[in-house]
Amino acid sequence: MLGIVGTIPIEDFPVTTGIVSLEGDCIVIGNNRISVHRGTPAMIAAAIETLKYKNKTNPFCYLVGDIGNGKGCRRLYKELEDNIAKTSFKTLALHYFQPDVDLFKKVIREIDKMPKRPVLVADAGFMYVAKMAGDASFFDLFTPDAGELAYLADEKAPHPFYTRGFILHEDNQVPDLIQRAYQHNNAAKYLLVKGEKDYVANKDGILEIIDNPVEEILEPIGGTGDTLTGIVSALICSGMDIKTASAKAALVNRLAGFYAKPTPATQIYEIIKQIPRALSEVFKDK
Amino acid sequence: MFRKFKKDKGKHGSREHGRGILVFENTTEVIRAEKILKTKGWKIKVMGPPPNIRTGCDLVIEFPLIEELSIIRTLAEVKVKPLQVVPVNEELLEPVSLIHEKEFGKYLMIRAANMKITVDRDTKTIVNVSGGGCPDVPYLAEQMVNMKLDETKQPNEIGYTLCAYALQIAYDRMTELC
Prior knowledge:
The complex is a heterodimer. Chain A is built from 11 helices and 12 strands.
């Protein structure tokens, strides 16, 4: 089963765990319906569409409301510390979260105790804190965009906000940044870098480049990275190896974006609606 | 196109003075303190904390130590209290200093650090907010998308994290251009 950890942008939403379903433009957990805009709800919605295509069960999610003050996340860190080692997820995707190095380290210590460790995917706040804590290599896959890759490549930056200009500069090419991130042990075992071209890489270098179809207008649309993380996590959970899942997920995400005929004002749910069509196209020979 | 953030280069920020940092509970408090101190004319800078006091999504205010009492008094007048005041000798991390602007027809996207804001220049409406990884990003997006630039709540009013701070920088640049 796929486990997902993340936040909901509603301040008083309590720590809530359970199987999540998708109904129209809302994810549903227990009696709670949450709109799919961007962030973790968009990631979950993309994962559900992908799992459904692969005839797999919906994900089990750990959610909490947090609007940035970290109060909700601190409660969910504690829930994870107390209970994550008792689970048996095949894949665990960790997403939007308040970085807190001390609390994060307690959680990964518990994950490390699991008899069979899940494949660990991190994006957004969890990817940031994994790098801040010096624990990037504990993870199997990170899904940064080009700016976040520059952050991973900057061994001195504790947050993307502090990425040094000479690293962030556009003259720095993605392959060089990937190499630098691995050189300083600040990358997961695999990287899926999203951007104008999507890259799948590991410590040995670039494994795949996915650059078609080209849809430049996806860049301003909030949530396109979230959907990519949801799709790749679901594909890995369905049994695909990380490298193949990453390349296929990148293609599915690009196609879904292309089919949505986006403008810079398009909202992410319009792209999520196209994921089933994109999955059919990518896996048509299977 | 890249532009450098504007930076204060006042005498109070110069390296020949001993420097200290004000450490606050969260970024919102830093933003509040920064606003107050800059309004009062202090030449302070927001910076990254040194590794020994770094916990996560942090930002501190660097100030000339010689001014410590006056600055603490100024903040106390408006009930803002730092958690710690720490002298520093090492170089602090500077916030990212590049702003990237990209046009998509009538739309303009501005990126600061890991945060992007996109506006329909005809209507001055925010049509998308993207990037970031801290939990206030989806919240900020919900509050800002579909709002007019001059009517929206701003990230420094309702955000808490470095992502919110970066989005404010992008927003400020957008208001200069639109």
